[in-house]
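check this:
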Amino acid sequence: MRKNNLITLICLLLLTGCKEEVDTSVRYVFKHDTVLSYLQKHGTYSEYASLLKQQPISKYTQTTLAQILSARGSYTVFAPTNEAIDAYLRTVWEENPDLMRGPTWDDFISLHKRDSIRQVIVLNSIIDSGDYEDAYETWAFPEKDKAEFPRTNLMDHKLAVHNNIAGYPDSLYINGNCPVNALQRDIRCLNGVIHQMEKVIAPKDITASIYIQEILNEGKEGFLMMSKAIQACGLLDTLSVIRDEVYEDRYLRGLVPDLVGMTGWGFAEGNTGYVPQHRLYGFTIFSETDEFWRSQGFDPHESSTTLLPKLQDWILQNEQYSQEYDTFTTGEDYESPQNLLNLWTTYHILPMRIPVNRLVFHNNEYGYNRDNPRGYTIPVCEYYPTMGGKPRLLKIIETSQSNGVCLNRFPNLDNGRHGTGLEVSCDPDKVGCRIDTESDQAIVNDIVNCCIYPIDAPLALTDAVRNNLGRQRMRFDGMSLFPEAMNNDIRLKQATEERYVHVHMPNTVTSYNYLEGMQMSEQTHFVYYNTGWTENWPNLNTDEMKAVGRFEIMLTLPPVARRGIYEVRYEVLMTGKRGILQIYFGDNPQNLPVAGIPIDLTKSFAFGRYAWEEDTEDDDYNAEIDKRMRNNGVMKGALGIGMKGSTSDTQRRNGSFENLRHIVWRGLMEPDRPYYIKLKSVIDDDHREFYMDYLEFCPKEVYDNPEKPEDIW
């Protein structure tokens, strides 16, 4: 609950108990209903209104939700009818006969259990949009089917919208099976919006481990085969974790401080950098379906004792692994990271929960305008290391022609200097796996720490996939390096409050090691600047990583897929607020060698040493400019990234935003091992900024290809 809303409520309560005359000229006057008064006027919500009066906002206060919903604010309320609440109580009674003597509030055996059920009904039904954003009317609901609202409800859960019901164009469901009344929706009140619900929203709040165990116990169709593989590989304990309780305790006790007065510390903007409220864990599982396995001659209901050896043999015989890079065992020691079944299974799992609308990010790529989307344009990609004993790379991509989000798809692109950047075709052996986000088999809301997506083809890191990954430039947004950024809704959160715009990452030395893939010195103050929904800059996804102080930051980088010579590039928008840094790069975090000379982030691309010139109408001359700049260790910004997807070259390669890619290292990289980059301040000034937008890995056959020069996209 937002602090300003609570302060307003307290002031209103004090005013109502005061006997003195007050100046009504500055008084907040209610000319229409508040959410609470509307609910109280309509008998169909009488049960819900009664529960609001009984339910405190939290265990730390006696203030009720009824009091909050009668004060100023911006609340989206999914109000269940009396019938919906009665039906929910009956379901609870039928499923938990030891909990209640009958399906009424008076039949609970334990008052504590009764209060817990009341809390589930009420806290799951309300989203607080804070002080600066409006409540959600249906026109502002997420457009993508099964996509989640940007903000959590008061139970700290994300609710999702299901609006793609065949034959029912006006249908609207929350979390898959909770219908919004077709007529009683978008009821605008002074302090929010009400949507009448025909069923109580009550997520089960179970973990992936419990969900998979239920599949195994009941022999549920869909992912039974994969569930048996996951269990055999000993992954259920891993999939049971929800949050870092140590961090939770330290945060609640005020031991992880916010960064107050950011400009005073040396940042160019911002008031307070807020540390994350939680440190949650999450997972995403991409799975072949039981239907697929039947087409391969398997019976998913067969005993694991005989089924799993057959599955491992299928993986072996169909070469669902790399003959060049994988060494493995094929016995029944499935929990061993060297076991073939374990290698195959863990390549299907990412250590982050990725909902439907965050599998890839459409923001400011060429031709795409987030304020007025005209459909998808150039491909957008994410590259993530999967789980398992060694990090292995998985590509997630969506293009205008891919019919959804895909894994390990490698299309042919129109990416010449005057091309469109679009996918023009895709070879049959490179289409990859399409992720099914639409069907009922996609499990995106039932599990608190995981999403499970069906895929339409087998997924494996074969030699062909490795070679395709190793033949392309890979671009990593800075915050994509950290699963915690996705799991805790930090990266590109669609909210404008300071808490979500300036996120202060706890110092790994003095506060807490929040981002496992980042280590920083004691003198470093690190902030994630989520400008994606507040600014219009030509950054990748319009967000930034910044730090001030005598900063020293080491990042764990994703692996490459095959052995080869690669360039490592570091992109930056330069301004006078930046500092000077030295970069170190290698595979031994205890002994990283220096990578090049220090980079002066204050020097613009027009700085004489870089040989920069604006592009001309002469393509041959433009290519010469690019060669001269490469000889000076830099490249122009990417053509595919602009301001709100601008198609103007001025805003992409030639603009006044000082956009440069620095070539910081070139050398041999081995597959399936982590690499590390360290960025250290070398200027005697602790008020200068470190900045990072994205990194690139580019193989030699791309940047040094005489037949087909590297594209400028």
Observations:
- The two ends are 43 Å apart (CA to CA).
- Residues 3-16 form the longest helix (14 residues).
- The domain at 474-703 is CATH 2.60.120 (Jelly Rolls).
